[in-house]
Amino acid sequence: MSELITDELVIACARRWIGTPYQHQASKRGVGTDCLGLIRGVYRELYRREPETPPPYSPDWAEVPAPSGIRAETMADAARRHLVPLEIAEACAGDVLLFRLTSSSVAKHCAIQVGEGQMIHACSGRAVAEVHMGNWWPRHLAFAFRFPSEAP
To answer: Which of 8, 57, 75, 119 satisfies CB 3.0 to 4.6 Å to 61 for a cystine?
Structure first.
């Protein structure tokens, strides 16, 4: 029988990543990760499998206009394949948050909420940290997801 996935378990897994250096496209606790790698790593710890391996992506992947002019919500679409979508107002501790860094961009940053106004994330040039969200991050929140309570 598999372990029930709780918000406490998600947060405990995420906190084990604190201090992991930032490394673009990486997902190895204690060695290097980016924001997506953090979510993938927590998912691996919870379910004992990789959700999916993303294709190579550049640091500015969301700023590059698509040839069609339509900007796909690539990160949100991938999250929908593995996580449970939520209304933003429903997000609570243990949930995955996706942010738009500008009002006209697609969501390209993610974090795990650890409490009211707190999140764990990986940011370029910094190690994974638990931080206060302040006023800026909540204004840029675009999507929220929950880890499934049982292994998919």
So the answer is: 57
CB-based contact 50:44 (threshold 8 Å) = yes
Give me the domains of the chain, ranges plus CATH numbers. 7-146 (3.90.1720.10)
DSSP readout, 94-106? T-EEEEESSTTSP
In the chain (152 residues long), the average pLDDT of successive 10-residue segments reads 84 98 96 97 96 76 55 89 97 97 89 96 96 96 96 78
What is the C-alpha to C-alpha distance for residues 131 and 113, in angstroms, rounded to an integer? 10
- Strands 27-28 and 32-33: what pairing? antiparallel
- The residues facing 22 across adjacent strands are 33
Please give the radius of gyration of the chain, using alpha carbons only, rounded to the nearest integer: 15
